[in-house]
Amino acid sequence: MRIQGQFADNAPPRYIMAETVKRWNETWEYPKLRLSTNKDFFEAAEARLGDQIKTFEGDWTDWWVEGVGSGARPNAMVRDAQVTAADAQTLGAVASFYGSPEGPEIRKGSEVVYGNASLFDEHTWGAANPWTIGDQGMDSGDQQWHWKYSKALAATDEGEVLLDRASSHLGDVLAAAPDALASFYVTNTSIWERTDEVVIFLPESKVPLETPIKVVDSRTKKELDSYETGQVNPKHRNAGRFVHALVEKAPSLGVVRLDIQKADKAAATSMKSSDELVLENDFLKVTFNLKGASVSSIFAKKIGKEIVRQDSVVGFNAYIYDEYASSGGFNHQSGRLEGNLRLDLLATRNLTGPGFVIDRGSNAAKQWITIETRAKGSSWIRSTYTLRKGVDRLDINNRIYKEATMTKESGFFAFPFALENPETRVELSGGMSGSNLPYVPGSALHMRAARRWVSFADKELAVALSLQDAPLVQLGAIALPYAPFPGTMGDPEPATVYSWIHNNLWDTNFPGQQGFEMNFRYSVGASAVTGDGAGPALGARTAVGYSRPLRSSLATAKSGSAIDTEALFAIDDSRVRAIGLTSPAAGEILLRLQSFAEVPLKVKLKVHSRFTSAQLTTMLGEAKSDLSIAGGVVEVPIERIGVAGVRLKFAD
């Protein structure tokens, strides 16, 4: 018998079973009872059954994963906190490389962020009856939810503070150009060289607001495409302005210096475009359907392919709102109801109404369109589509004002791609699932919690969707969220992602209702297939726009020379990404890598000349074996769909 507490789950250990065994053995001669351990069970199973025990590997899905959509806003906050904590460690490690002693302290500070994030992730703190408002016991559901929510707030706040701290330390050890009004070092925390937009806060104390400026790339001495936005609340926030600059070929896991110089006149902040509903850059051409408040076409120009399915059930980035016929406020009701093919429990399904353009414009760095629409259950939905100059992805920001209700409900954004027999891949935390990859029998196949991206690929075309705020997805169709989970949309579409942004389906542990005004951010990418793993490689690269934004640090070093650019690491395989850097001790950097290749790899890691030794480690930095540095390159073995750590020492 598996015993926890007194025959209950989510309980601490108790003496009752030990005392029961003791009394039994004092009373009866046979059979003798004893308390065992988990180890005892597995040793007994191996001894009795041996080779008869079947072995399974692969994705073992979570049947309670709909819970990540039951607290949409705090869940998105925790995901952002994980991004900022990782980037803070990377900036802290780069700062230590340039002489700051604070790298190990930044790593320790990240533990506070991850601790709060982990306490939010623990599901039972939503309480048994989350709709109750008592002050103790089973009736304190609302109070317990506030406790859980507070951990998301703490993780977010501490993550932002840690990132600011790391950025400041990096700026403290890097000098400004002598002829610049101010200099900023931009850090690319991904392991790929990339072109992207960086946001710089330029304090009024450095450059007065009325001074016209330009942004100059120190490598080429050329003025960058840039524009300015004002402080959010100029009366109650730091005085200054935000400068947005388009950085070309930011070095992988390295820095590039941008100089702020005086300009002859202020740059135009916005240039209105034509009334045509088209966004276009060198890579993508995007058109829109106002009747369906969706995207009608995304044409990948370099490949010559349309990537939006033209006969899909709903439009690309269209919103779907479902209501169910079960009642709220009953403990565990969802687990006791049963669906059927007549879909009796699907009470209503609504799509958005026609949309209308509320903003349309362009500037030197980007172009955008914002379309507003309405749907049942929401006051409004505002979708902003952005194409940046020289960047091969479409960024989508869906901001939705949703009312709270105890009516059982779900909301989805649909992304139908134009592939018929694709290889599907979904990034998981620490792994990957998808078509023809193994999974444990009995897994929940109708839903997944994706980490950052979903990809599809055939022999010619790869497409990817990144998910920054809403990890819960259903692929091909939407299932009725009651066993046996029948489909609700006819034949599944082979390359359609339904991003499940919110629900209140489970009646215990998770909130019974939620209302919010918040963003749901996505990015879309496309590429030609040139080899194995093209989908995951594209997915990881598409996701960096929101999950690894370029970071800026104001140069404040009192001495030393300004550097133009420097890369600490580079890698030769696009299927491998950098999880990040951290500084385990003075004079050391730990690089964490993740492979999406479905075969073991030995990747060639190019390292800066200052690194003197390398060691293969676990993700936590525990030593496994020594690695050699030959010609500035380290060969790193990584298991299939695996992770690895490389711990390097560097000279002063």
List descriptors.
4 domains, alpha+beta, Immunoglobulin-like, Beta-galactosidase, Chain A, domain 5, 652 residues, single chain
User: How many structurally independent domains?
Assistant: 4
How large is the share of residues in beta strands? 35-45%
Helix/strand class: alpha+beta
As a percent range, the share of helical residues equals: 10-25%
Helix count equals: 6
Write the layout of secondary structure elements.
Elements: H1 16-27, H2 38-49, H3 72-97, H4 103-121, H5 141-172, E1 182-188, E2 194-203, E3 213-217, E4 222-223, E5 226-230, E6 240-250, E7 254-262, E8 278-280, E9 284-289, E10 294-300, E11 305-306, E12 319-324, E13 346-351, E14 356-362, E15 366-375, E16 378-388, E17 393-402, E18 409-416, E19 423-428, E20 431-434, E21 448-449, E22 453-457, E23 461-467, E24 472-475, E25 496-503, E26 516-528, H6 534-547, E27 551-554, E28 565-567, E29 569-571, E30 576-582, E31 588-595, E32 601-607, E33 611-617, E34 623-627, E35 629-630, E36 633-638, E37 643-650
Antiparallel strand pairs: 1-7, 1-27, 2-6, 3-4, 3-7, 5-6, 7-28, 8-9, 9-10, 10-11, 12-13, 12-18, 14-15, 15-16, 16-17, 17-26, 18-25, 19-20, 19-22, 21-24, 22-23, 23-26, 24-25, 29-32, 30-31, 31-37, 32-36, 33-34, 33-37, 35-36
If you had to describe this structure to a student in words, what would you say it looks like?
- By secondary structure, the chain is an alpha+beta fold.
- It has 4 domains: 1-53, no CATH class; 182-271 and 550-554, Sandwich (Immunoglobulin-like); 278-547, Golgi alpha-mannosidase II, domain 4 (Beta-galactosidase, Chain A, domain 5, Distorted Sandwich); 568-652, Golgi alpha-mannosidase II (Immunoglobulin-like), CATH 2.60.40.
- The strands form 7 sheets. A 9-stranded antiparallel sheet has the order 14-15-16-17-26-23-22-19-20, with helices on one face. Strands 1, 3, 4, 7, 27 and 28 form a 6-stranded antiparallel sheet that branches. A 6-stranded antiparallel sheet has the order 13-12-18-25-24-21, with no helix packed on it.
- A hairpin with a 2-residue loop joins strand 35 (629-630) and strand 36.
